[in-house]
Amino acid sequence: MPEVQSKTITYLLSMLSIEEAKKAASKRTPETAEFKLSSDEPWDTVKAQFLVKIDAKLSPGNLNFDDYRVMYFIARLLPKPGMQLSTPENYASLIKRVISASNQNPIVNITIE
């Protein structure tokens, strides 16, 4: 069985605060962030990076991953609105898509509300 090559994934985050989410879609101004991680990173590491970026950009009073709706999409692989990203199983599905893609530098778009 051939060894699976890990890839560096670029995560592009688009985050909406509660106030922004209440606005009409055309009037929303999301906060953005970016980070890169290897595809062999565990789910807890990825989730921790999301929380670091949420804290830096939105400064919520309470920082709990379960309080956010996290969705992902990958251009030409998984169209918008994408899939939910909230469990290790969701993350495993994302990694499977990334590994099977021909792109060596995949970009995963993350929407956090």
Shape: globular
Pairing-aware structural class of the strands and helices?
A: alpha+beta
Mean pLDDT: 91
Helix content: 25-40%
| Helix and strand sequence | EHEHEEHE
Instruction: Please provide the count of β strands.
Output: 5
Individual helix count:
3
CATH homologous superfamily assignment = Phosphatidylinositol 3-kinase Catalytic Subunit, Chain A, domain 1
> Largest sheet, order of strands side by side?
2-1-5-3-4
CATH topology: Ubiquitin-like (UB roll)
Measure the end-to-end span: 40 Å
CATH architecture: Roll
Specify the CATH class.
Answer: Alpha Beta
Count of structural domains: 1
Biggest β-sheet description:
5 strands, mixed
Strand content: 25-35%
Cα-atom Rg, whole angstroms?
14 Å
pLDDT < 50 stretches: none
Fold and architecture overview:
The chain is α+β, with helices and mostly antiparallel strands and 113 residues long. The chain has one domain (8-112): Phosphatidylinositol 3-kinase Catalytic Subunit, Chain A, domain 1 (Ubiquitin-like (UB roll), Roll), CATH 3.10.20. Helices cover 30% and strands 30% of the residues. It is built from 3 helices and 5 strands, in the order βαβαββαβ. It is globular and about 40 Å long. The N and C termini lie far apart (40 Å). The mean pLDDT is 91.
Name the descriptors:
globular; 30% helix; Ubiquitin-like (UB roll); single chain; alpha+beta; 113 residues; 3 helices; 5-stranded mixed β-sheet
Q: How are the secondary structure elements laid out?
A:
Blueprint: E1 8-15, H1 18-22, E2 31-38, H2 43-58, E3 70-74, E4 78-84, H3 88-100, E5 107-112
Parallel strand pairs: 1-5
Antiparallel strand pairs: 1-2, 3-4, 3-5
